[in-house]
Amino acid sequence: MENLTSLFPTIEIKANDRLDQYTYTKTGGPADWVAFPQTVEEVQVLVRYANKQHLPLTVLGNASNLIVKEGGIAGLVLILTKMNQIQVSGEQVIDQAGASYIETTKVARDHALTGLEFAAGIPGSIGGAVFMNAGAYGGETKDVIQSATVISPVGEVTTLTHEELDFGYRHSSVQDTDSIVLSATFSLKTGDQEVISAMMDDLNQRRADKQPLDLPSCGSVFKRPEGYYAGKLIHDAGLQGYTVGGAQVSKKHAGFIVNIGQATATDYLEVIHHVQATVQAKFGVSLETEVRIIGRD
Ligand SMILES: Cc1cc2nc3c(=O)[nH]c(=O)nc-3n(C[C@H](O)[C@H](O)[C@H](O)COP(=O)(O)OP(=O)(O)OC[C@H]3O[C@@H](n4cnc5c(N)ncnc54)[C@H](O)[C@@H]3O)c2cc1C
């Protein structure tokens, strides 16, 4: 394999870089290459190179919804957190993909723009939020997004409308096309800054009361099964506190699996499989993971 650091000397690229330093769960083996592009042009150069060389390409945002396996990731990983500009134009907020969702909600609040309060505590990037249609407390990314600019696996940049993004529960069309989100435009409304601020504080307090925010995790591990709550099923199955190695079903919020020590991705996966099998056996409900599990065994 060619040496990407000498091939692209102006782009920050690291060889054989461990991913556990970036993931919220603090797990994950090394990637062959990790690049931190700072501009759309840098992303485009890397995407085109990977496509031409048949080099596997993976994109990460804040790595807050990921379990990366112990074998790490083959090929090139793009981490977009250095593309993090947030611009306000009237009632629109235009974000680069690596911008923080939490930071974006604060910028909207500071401009007295309402609509993003629900996302005040979602620790992802904007690219990850569009990809996942992240949501909380009755709001979803799809409610406020107007469009997103993406780059295709062959390096073509296009802007997708709300309709083309085809949002669903924790789903957007970006998941089906292997595209990379480069930026997104939110359409908000002018509101009362004090009301916006109070709502954000309230939602953050509710999170802090219910979620184990003091320990590494990847948020809710499972999607909400139709007609049920994953956390309640896991609680009712008596699984809170179930531990493999350093991975534990949170005692504070049954939907979370926390890293209480030196958890590995394998520990996480064993806990996930045990929870799925137990809930299936006790209640006949199949739990599908919301967290994305990627990488080599
Ligand atoms: C404590 C905690 C609380 C959480 N609370 C919530 C919550 O309330 N609601 C909620 O929905 N989620 C929640 N999450 C999960 C997570 O924050 C969201 O899913 C978030 O949108 C993921 O964004 P990210 O940048 O971290 O994505 P990553 O974890 O980096 O990636 C997730 C997926 O998105 C893809 N992706 C990332 N960036 C891009 C891009 N630019 N283009 C294309 N694909 C991309 C990745 O390839 C991967 O498949 C929580 C997580 C934690 C740790």
Automatic annotation (TrEMBL):
Cellular compartment(s): Cytoplasm
EC number: 1.3.1.98
Superkingdom of origin: Bacteria
Primary location class: cytoplasm
Example GO molecular function: UDP-N-acetylmuramate dehydrogenase activity
Gene name of the record: murB
Pathway(s) it belongs to: Cell wall biogenesis; peptidoglycan biosynthesis
PROSITE patterns listed in its UniProt record: FAD_PCMH (PS51387)
Cofactor field: FAD
Function as written in the Swiss-Prot or TrEMBL entry: Cell wall formation.
Residue ranges constituting the FAD-binding PCMH-type domain according to the UniProt record: 26-191
Similarity field: Belongs to the MurB family.
NCBIfam families, sorted: murB, PRK13905.1
Annotated GO biological process: cell division; cell wall organization; peptidoglycan biosynthetic process; regulation of cell shape
Taxonomic path: Bacteria, Bacillati, Bacillota, Bacilli, Lactobacillales
Xref: InterPro entries: FAD-bd_PCMH, FAD-bd_PCMH-like_sf, FAD-bd_PCMH_sub1, FAD-bd_PCMH_sub2, MurB, MurB_C, MurB_C_sf, Oxid_FAD_bind_N
GO cellular component: cytosol
Catalysed transformations (reactions): UDP-N-acetyl-alpha-D-muramate + NADP(+) = UDP-N-acetyl-3-O-(1-carboxyvinyl)-alpha-D-glucosamine + NADPH + H(+)
Record Pfam families: FAD_binding_4, MurB_C
Name listed for the protein in its UniProt record: UDP-N-acetylenolpyruvoylglucosamine reductase
Active site feature: R170, S220 (proton donor), E290
Alphabetical UniProt keywords: Cell cycle, Cell division, Cell shape, Cell wall biogenesis/degradation, Cytoplasm, FAD, Flavoprotein, NADP, Oxidoreductase, Peptidoglycan synthesis
